Amino acid sequence: MKLKSIVLATSVVLASNAFAADVEVLHYWTSGGEAKSVAELKKIMQAKGFGWKDFAVAGGAGENAMTAVKARVMSGNAPTAAQIKGPSIQEWGAEGTLANIDEAAKDGKWDAILPKVVSDVMKYKGHYVAAPVNVHRVNWVWANPEVLKKAGVDGVPTTWDAFFVAADKIQKSGAIAIAHGGQPWQDATIFESVVLGVGGAQFYDKSLVKLDQASLTSPTMVKVFDTMAKIKTYIDKDAAGREWNLATAMVINGKAGFQFMGDWAKGEFTAAGKVPGKDFLCAAAPGTEKSYTFNIDSFAMFNQKAADAKKGQLALATSIMSPEFQEVFNLNKGSIPVRPDVPRGKFDACATKSMDDMAASSKAGSLEPSFAHGMAVHSATQGAITDVIAKFMNSNMSSKDAVAALAKAAKTK
Ligand code: BGC
Fold first, then answer.
1. Is the minimum distance from the CB of 137 to ligand 1 under 6 angstroms?
2. How many other CB atoms are found less than 10 A from the CB of residue 328?
3. Considering the entire predicted model, what is its pTM?
4. Confidence check: pLDDT of 7 > 60
């Protein structure tokens, strides 16, 4: 057994040396909609003559993938690129492992095309080290209109009070009100929408971005946890450990009324041939219509040993930022292009709403980085806060105790 794994490991190393111009791409896009999306990048790279070595690590929001990246980089065998985003890019930059891709950025005029808030995240010490793929909006709620109709619910509720009235009706009709997967990152995804809906964008910014202790311990935060406690009562008993895309399938199949999830969920509806406005509804989570939590996927590039590996890496970066890829990828993924110059024509109503709402919230000062999806704070702090939210979801912890634990976790560095 042991020998077999050594032989296997050796053949992997040999294979990677044999095709040094291949690109090896580590990502966590394994659901139906996600796999279709990443296949488009593979196609483009293969058309340019590069071999594609797929390094897919299953697990929503990439926790398992991040463990895999660490293992590979530590063993001196970093992939060409890995799906890493937000402040984590700086963390990897500080380790001295990221590759400079300024050449691709200069050729593609990234500085002129990308909004500065985005290009800043893709640079380490002024040099591009990552390429952005998309913009996901996190503060969405997805709904099955048939389930709502059967229960006598008229449209997607826009306040939390109205939401709970609707959830009661759905439960009475025999369906599950909230499709959810009991995994810490999914709990945190709902939590950030509740913080945004109950407290507003400024409160969100103070508490989940600036980690302001007064906001974290405020009565508003107690109300957030009270709302979470209520949400818990509408989640079915089999939710523990469920993957997010299986929760989305419950809404698609009419088992459940709602799901709180970023718009990668739309990728699942689309892959199932469902049409927005007809087969499913997308709306801002209650109380968050005027705000927007953003989550930008990107690929960080790692220093490569093989001399000709750089060619593939630069071609990958160029392909990711090309308008053609940005369009086809985002049509499948549920997100919107990170390039503002991609035509809107082929995008559906949820995507164009995302584009409009992003622009409006940016003007209004209510465009916020997603806490749950690694856009807002250091990964260690995010992990500690997420643990508190998950503990609250899985125990009888009081809202007051949760707030105290949250404030303590926010000090983690
Ligand atoms: C990523 C998405 C991904 C989702 C589920 C998010 O954090 O940004 O690209 O589809 O997690 O894994």
1. no
2. 19
3. 0.94
4. no
